[in-house]
What we know:
- By secondary structure, the protein is α+β, with helices and mostly antiparallel strands.
- It is 24% helix and 17% strand.
- The protein has 15 helices and 23 strands.
- The strands form seven sheets. Strands 12, 13, 14, 15, 16, 17 and 18 form a seven-stranded mixed sheet that branches.
- A hairpin with a 5-residue loop joins strand 21 (547-548) and strand 22 (554-555).
Amino acid sequence: xxxxxxxxEPATARRRGGVLRVVAPTDAAPLxxxxxxxxxxxxxxxxxxxxxxxxxxxxxxDWQAVTPVPDLALEVPSTWNAGLGASHRSYxxxxxxxxxxxxPDRRPVTAHDVVRGFKRMCNPVRPSPSLAYFxxxxxxxxxxxxxxxxxxxxRAGDAATLAAYQNAHEIPGVFALDDETLVIELARPALxxxxxxxxxxxxAVPVEHDAFVPGSPEAAAHxxxxxxxRVRRHRPGEWVELVRNPAWEPAADPxxxxxxxxxxxxxxxxxxxxxxxxTDAPAEVPVAPAVGGLPAAEPVDGDGALGWALDPxxxxxxxxxxxxxxxxxxxxxxxxxxxxxxxxxRRHRPGVPVRVAGSLIPPGNAxxxxxxxxxxxxxxxxxxxxxxAGHADGTPLVLIHPHSGLGPEVAHACASDLTRAGLxxxxxxxxxxxxxxxxxxxxxxxxxxxxxxxxxPDWLEHNGxxxxxxxxxxxxVPGGANHGGYAAxxxxxLIERALDAxxxxxxxxxxxxxxxxxxxxxxxxxxxxxAPVAAPRRPDRVDGIAPLPPQGYAVDLTAARPEVxx
Length: 566
């Protein structure tokens, strides 16, 4: 594997301070970590901390680039330091001293705060998008989440009621022995569990957050920080301003810094462009939107890089009766001209490697396979299948897409392909927040039937579940990316086999088989695999740009150093 080298920056007269502006998707704002998606991790990192975290790296061939390092924990538990039991199901974490909350008394962060974070990710109002990972891994967490959801069906969803339930019930596998010692017990050994602990969902949460409904504007306005920055002002859907946290001690945080005096996040619904700012704007770092990347992004070595993305793919809302006949779904898979979409990407994102995709799991991820059951762009065969299924033209299908990135271009290309093949389709663009909400709670009929989507891996080692489990598993626990409602007992059994596998190669084989079956069923239509991209290494007026590979090669915003005169 080869990657472009990161050159050391020359010494300059610039000093610490200044204002760093960041363009961020609306749904990736650093709000309540309990319901923040994994894609928000680079922003959540500014004001929260987890048991483990990632560190920046110049070269993903370095094992430290993709392996979690201790954050709130003093050590990553292992059999060598007696933190991991012989069964590989019991983890003991010792809390790092000197980490404090941004409260009037600067109270220490304790093991009880981590327990509260695990509970709060299960809240029934806005459960964490990562909940399915933890529910299938941590002992008793799935039952805790489903019981809370059942209780919520006949209880008020106000903050007091939620907090009362949360504090009166326990997750059997997550408990504090004292303020400094946390125990997490797993339902089964998991090759990737430590990686999951770096997600926003596993953040420590202070008791003050119990006064607010998770994910609400009130919660965002009253966040308490234990990271290098704290939220000072916030206008939902528009901007967030963070300033240095006076309770943060650099000596107690080995992997974050606080170079800028202030960080301003300008939230975009996907319709705007980062490069439309005036030339005298403060130092700014763009962040790639969900679909299509940025024109200014730089590819990380295409062939050998870890963490290729499934970007884009077509998601089918299988709750809609139009998809009841598998031949209609197969016609969709045959109708899309994937090669034309690849050409579109190459025109708009020159230099970023893309490949026509036949498999759900891209290269550089566990369980990748090159099999492709449906050749690309065969409208004649698609029409034959529709005729054999007795499918008649009716109301056009609705294909939703985000405004961001190349979402509109991809959607209109796919809609044209489907229409030519005998499936009249109308592309409907949505602001990013509305698009995310539509995926989270799809209508059974009369809503959308198709969506343009993208899937970027949430971590890079032993990560088959970030595609196959998240996108395919039928589970009563909320969360995950199975937005189309796919349910296949055989695929669920393969997912369970992968999760139970003690060796990576056995897990990979099961992930591969699950993904192959789902693609054959046309649960989704893979279109392209895209190589990972990193934001520009040296934006105008910003130094200290360093990537976090497991967070989509996003910039470590705590280390970005805006230009300051004098």
